[in-house]
Each structure stands twice: as structure tokens, then as C-alpha cells.
Write a structure and sequence with these properties.
Largest sheet: 4 strands, antiparallel
Order of helices and strands: HHHHHHEEEEEEEHEEHHHH
Number of helices: 11
Structural class: alpha+beta
Strand content: 5-15%
Distance between the termini: 24 Å
Shape: globular
Oligomer: single chain
Strand order of the largest sheet: 2-3-7-6
Bound molecules: coenzyme a persulfide
Number of strands: 9
Length: 380
């Protein structure tokens, strides 16, 4: 075992930390309040190579390992989870899915722009009645020879209105069940493709979440990813890696809230001393620190598994399950340590508590992670 980061990984972590403090922190409260998408910040993250971190430089990416990506996600999420989810979706779901399973033409046409951050992408699986139960896709992609005709609705889509490229999962051969599902590349502006209203959310309010409506949208056959019927496996495999990104986001939210609470406890005085001198507070900090460290090693291990070409379905699911629980518990305790100030927006922790909740829901709820983990351990 080697717990030491390479010099390059240390540099990337520092670059992400600096960026988060100089570019994401200013305005993070206002963006949350007004639900403003961080367009300028995303553009700069593209310039820094954060939008296609693991993509081969041949396709405009940074060619880094998963651990570097996770370190970046952690640092960005300490400050602004709305921005980090945009990074996560673009990197893990869209770029990784296209680079791993896309055709050479698709990579040339779409991946290069996505990896450089010139445009961003969205991953569209969830539907009004198919979130956790992902095989029950009601959106249809009917085969018309040289093209598909896409009809249906997708829900809760991150980057819903700001994306230019959408990877859409749809049912082609209903009689074949999940084996009849396809993944199609849909471009914004294709006739019949409409973007629904923006969701008014509890957390990650700076990211734009929309429903998408497809009415007889004509998709050329060359926009299908992989062979006919590969769409469900594409979604599952891509989400398995996506969960590592969200686990890193949860870790970052927890670590960010913990750092704020620790610093505050050393300044705020009550009963004649700093509140960190009261065991009630010191023990909370001890628990937070221990849980965050445990989450960190699960997240780094999942990234390492992916980099080693080991199976990472179970390690990614465990990392997401645990880190999201730690994010929720830590942020609740951080608000408690801040007391009255914790309930006030300018101290950040209330936003982090709201942001933490989604990490237990998206890219597979905690209950779905337990299905993945229990099936895997019982199979052995
Ligand atoms: N990698 C590759 N293939 C996978 C896979 C993975 N991680 N997980 C499942 N599959 C394959 C299975 O091997 C099976 O194919 P074969 O019959 O050829 O072996 C197929 O997919 C169907 O799998 P399964 O029978 O396990 O499907 P279930 O309906 O039982 O569902 C879960 C499996 C619950 C794990 C899946 O539906 C899921 O992950 N749901 C959550 C989806 C999600 O994350 N939604 C959030 C929206 S994205 S923000």
C-alpha cells in the first residue's frame, strides 16, 4: 500500500484548491440564492483542463488518472458543489462514456469539444417513472432505417439547458426489455427537442436541472453509441464510474463543512473560552474528522481500482454510499457547531447541508448502492 500522492497529483490538488478559493468562492452564496449557472467559472475550468480530466490528450483532454480527478472534485466541492457537479457529469458520464464506447467519428465530432470545455454535456437516463428502476425506460427510439425517431420525457437532468450534447437512453425494442435499449447522442437545437422549465431545488441550486421533452426528434443512426441494444449496459457502466465522482463530491462537501466548523470553533467563545475547548464540540470534531478520513480512503480506493482496471462497481458504490452519509451527517453537525450563525447564509454551512442531500440521491440512491453492494457480496 502506498498512501503518498505523486508530485503531479499534489500539484493538481493545489491548482483545484486555488481555483476554488479565487474563482468559486466569490459569489457562491448569490449563485445559490438566485439559481445562477456558473458560466464564467465553467469556461475557466475548461481552460484549466478540469472538464475532460481523464480524456486522452489526442481528444483534447488532460490525460490524467481517476485519482487526480477525484482530488479535483474534492477540492472544488469543499467550496461549491453546484460547480463540481457540472464537472462530474461532464467528466465521468459524458466524456468517459464517449471515449470508452463511442466511435472514432463521435469522438472527433463531440468528445474534443466536450473535453476542452468548449461545450458541456448531459447524461439523460432518469424519467418520471424510471429513476432507480432504470430498465423501465418509456422514452422510445424507433428504428427507421438510417435514423431513429425519439419520443419521450427525461427528468432532473443536470446541465439541462446549458449543455450542447445530450446522451439519451431510450427503448428501441420493447419486447427485448433492457436488451432493447439504446444510447443516442442528441444535439441541442435538433427539431422536436425542447427543454422544460428549470427545477427550483433544495440544493446545488447553481447547477441547472431541467426536464427534457422529445417529440419526433430525428437522430441519425451514426449517433448511436455502441451496437444495437447496448444502451442499458452503457448507462450502467458509465454510472459506475460516475458514482466515484459523486462520492468525491460528497467527501469534499463534508471536508469543507468540517474545516469551516473547526476554524469557527477556535474563534467563537462561550462560557469564557473558545467553544473548541468544550468537549461537546471537540468530540463532534473528532467524529467528523474520523468519518471523513474513512470516506476519503473508500473514495481513493475506488479511484485506484478504476485506474488499475479492477472491477470498481462495488468499491464505487461503497464509496458513494458512505461518503454521502458522511456528507449529510457532517454538514448537519457543522450547522450545529455554528449555532445561530449556522442557520444564516453568509456562513456557508447551511448551503452545504442542503447540497449534501443530493449526494444520497443522484447517480443511484443510497438504497440502489446497497442493492449493488449486496448483490455483489452475495454472488461471491
Ligand atoms: N456494468 C455492466 N453491466 C451491468 C451493470 C454494470 N455496473 N449493472 C448491471 N448490468 C447489466 C447486468 O449484468 C444485466 O445484463 P445481463 O443480463 O446481460 O447480465 C443488465 O445490466 C440488467 O441488470 P439487472 O438485472 O441487475 O437489472 P435490475 O433491473 O435488477 O437493476 C440496478 C439493476 C438496480 C443496479 C440498476 O437498475 C441501477 O443501477 N439503477 C439505478 C440507476 C440510477 O443510478 N439512476 C439515477 C439516474 S442517473 S442521475
Amino acid at each position: 500500500m502506498n498512501f503518498t500522492l505523486t508530485e503531479e497529483q499534489e500539484m493538481i490538488r493545489q491548482a483545484a484548491r486555488d481555483f476554488a478559493h479565487t474563482e468559486l468562492l466569490p459569489g457562491v452564496i448569490e449563485r445559490d440564492e438566485t439559481q445562477q449557472f456558473p458560466s464564467e467559472q465553467v469556461k475557466k475550468m475548461g481552460e484549466l483542463g478540469f472538464m475532460g480530466m481523464m480524456v486522452d490528450p489526442e481528444y483534447g483532454g488532460s490525460g490524467l488518472d481517476t485519482l487526480s480527478y477525484v482530488l479535483t472534485m474534492e477540492e472544488l466541492s469543499k467550496v461549491d458543489a453546484s460547480s463540481s457537479v457540472i464537472v462530474s457529469v461532464n467528466n465521468s458520464l459524458v466524456c468517459w462514456g464517449l471515449e470508452t464506447f463511442g466511435s472514432e467519428e463521435q469522438k472527433e465530432k463531440y468528445l474534443k469539444k466536450l473535453a476542452s470545455g468548449e461545450i458541456i454535456g448531459a447524461f439523460c437516463l432518469s424519467e418520471p417513472e424510471a429513476g432507480s428502476d432504470a430498465t423501465s425506460q418509456k422514452t422510445t427510439a424507433i428504428d427507421k432505417g438510417d435514423h431513429y425517431v425519439l419520443n419521450g420525457t427525461k427528468n432532473w437532468i443536470t446541465n439541462g439547458s446549458s449543455a450542447s450534447v445530450y446522451l439519451v437512453i431510450a427503448q428501441t425494442h420493447i419486447e427485448k426489455g433492457y436488451k432493447g435499449i439504446n444510447a443516442l447522442i442528441v444535439e441541442k437545437g435538433m427539431p422536436g427537442f425542447e427543454i422544460g422549465p428549470k427545477e427550483n431545488k433544495l440544493g446545488i441550486r447553481g447547477s441547472d436541472t431541467h426536464s427534457l421533452i422529445f417529440n419526433d426528434v430525428k437522430i441519425p443512426k451514426e449517433n448511436r453509441i455502441g451496437g444495437d441494444g447496448f444502451g442499458f449496459k452503457f448507462a450502467m457502466k458509465t454510472l459506475a464510474g460516475g458514482r466515484i465522482g459523486i462520492a468525491a463530491q460528497a467527501l469534499g462537501i463534508a471536508a469543507g463543512a468540517y474545516e469551516l466548523a473547526k476554524n469557527y470553533s477556535k474563534e467563537r467563545r462561550a462560557f469564557g473560552t473558545e467553544i473548541s475547548n468544550h468537549q461537546a464540540i471537540a468530540f463532534k470534531l473528532a467524529d467528523m474528522h474520523t468519518q471523513i478520513e474513512a470516506a476519503r480512503y473508500l473514495v481513493y480506493k475506488a479511484a485506484w481500482d478504476k485506474d488499475q482496471d479492477n472491477d470498481y462497481d462495488i468499491s464505487g458504490a461503497m464509496a458513494k454510499l458512505y461518503a454521502s452519509q458522511v456528507a449529510m451527517e457532517t454538514t448537519v453537525e457543522a450547522v450545529q457547531i455554528f449555532g445561530g450563525n449556522g442557520f444564516v447564509k453568509e456562513y456557508h454551512v447551511e448551503r452545504m447541508m442542503r447540497d449534501a442531500k443530493i449526494t444520497q440521491i443522484y447517480e443511484g440512491t443510497s438504497e440502489i448502492q446497497k442493492i449493488v453492494i449486496s448483490r455483489s457480496i452475495l454472488k461471491k
